[in-house]
Amino acid sequence: MLRGKVIGNIVSTNKLDKLVGFKFLEIQLIENTQLTDKYIVAVDRTVSAGIGEEVLITTGSGARMALCDESCPIDAVVVGVVDKIQ
Amino acid sequence: MLRGKVIGNIVSTNKLDKLVGFKFLEIQLIENTQLTDKYIVAVDRTVSAGIGEEVLITTGSGARMALCDESCPIDAVVVGVVDKIQ
Amino acid sequence: MLRGKVIGNIVSTNKLDKLVGFKFLEIQLIENTQLTDKYIVAVDRTVSAGIGEEVLITTGSGARMALCDESCPIDAVVVGVVDKIQ
Amino acid sequence: MLRGKVIGNIVSTNKLDKLVGFKFLEIQLIENTQLTDKYIVAVDRTVSAGIGEEVLITTGSGARMALCDESCPIDAVVVGVVDKIQ
Amino acid sequence: MLRGKVIGNIVSTNKLDKLVGFKFLEIQLIENTQLTDKYIVAVDRTVSAGIGEEVLITTGSGARMALCDESCPIDAVVVGVVDKIQ
């Protein structure tokens, strides 16, 4: 999994029918304690992460396992909020 | 998912039978607000994105979920047009 | 597979139900004999690796094969502790 | 998908039984109009691309969808020849 | 597929039951004719590559297709020895 900071919401009107109602977050990736200059877009279905929160992201086919419908055309999903690393 | 700008259409006459009729777009990837020097090719089946538009791209096995036939030999597909990030 | 050093435990209260009870480790990746500045988060279900130990990590869909439930939304798992390379 | 230029044929006598008869091409990847210093090996089953030709390559699990037998242990396949980008 | 040079054997006593008896090789990746500073660990079940040999590696879900049991938690496997590129 990757760690990242939520920095925005992506607005997309023209998108696949299967993705209607999905929330897409712009995420800035974190390496250890540093924000990087790498970004990905992840779906958030159940965690409801807010702007500025640090999240855990599952990528690849595992991302679809977080949704009720495993045939969704996505490749990254927020699976948790990071409280701290100890 | 990745964000990118559509910069061209790829013309390919000699290709696999399963890919006949597919539209292949050359995409320049975007990190946050910056165009990068990374590029990928993505299929566009239903979004009909035009040159210069910013799009959302699903990669990997999730890309096949965007097509009617999940056995297509592709690894990236346009799933939406990005209006804005807020 | 990748090699890395366990450097911390990730605490996450707000996470997907499917991930409750999972241990998430912060891992610093190793290239040959060098620690790199790349990091990933991996689940540890059975190896019980401790802080400072060098581990072997399987990523992608293969990670789910290490769990009893192959529908878990994860993409990296600790599959072993590295004793040495000879 | 990725774009690349075919620069050689890989000769391998000692290989898995499932791969006997496969043609493996050494490919130099292209970013937009530039050859890069990144290379991958891709199988060519039906396109018959020649040395110097620019090709389209599908990677990951999608690569196996290009073959009759979807259980082949490969991760990259040539799916077309690029005529031009317009 | 990737090309790389076998540089060592990884010894791991504490590992998942499904991986007992597997041979894990430390591989230094090759780009065209150059050894790089990137490394991965790959399973070798049938090729029996020796230290110093150049090998072909399949990564991702395709790696599991090289084994009898497709539910093994691995993501890279040696599929052949490279004799030469012509």
Which secondary structure elements does this structure contain, and how are they paired or packed?
Five copies of one chain form a homopentamer.
Chain A: E1 2-11, E2 24-31, E3 34-43, E4 54-59, H1 61-64, E5 76-81, E6 84-85
Antiparallel strand pairs in A: 1-2, 1-4, 2-3, 4-5
Which terms summarize this structure?
homopentamer, 86 residues, mainly beta, OB fold (Dihydrolipoamide Acetyltransferase, E2P), 1 helix, 5% helix
Q: Name the CATH architecture of chain A.
A: Beta Barrel
Low-confidence stretches of chain A: none
Number of strand elements of chain A = 6
Q: Helix proportion of residues of chain A, in percent?
A: under 10%
N-to-C series of helices and strands of chain A: EEEEHEE
Estimate the global geometry of chain A from the Cα principal axes: globular
Q: What can be said about the biggest beta sheet of chain A?
A: 5 strands, antiparallel
Through-space gap between termini of chain A: 17 Å
Query: What structural class is derived from the secondary structure elements of chain A?
Result: mainly beta
The main sheet of chain A orders its strands as 3-2-1-4-5
Determine Rg of chain A (CA atoms, Å): 13 Å
Strand content of chain A: over 45%
Name given to the CATH homologous superfamily of chain A: EutN/Ccml
Number of domains of chain A: 1
Count of DSSP H/I helices of chain A: 1
Can you tell me the CATH class of chain A?
Mainly Beta
Largest interface: A-B, 32 and 27 residues
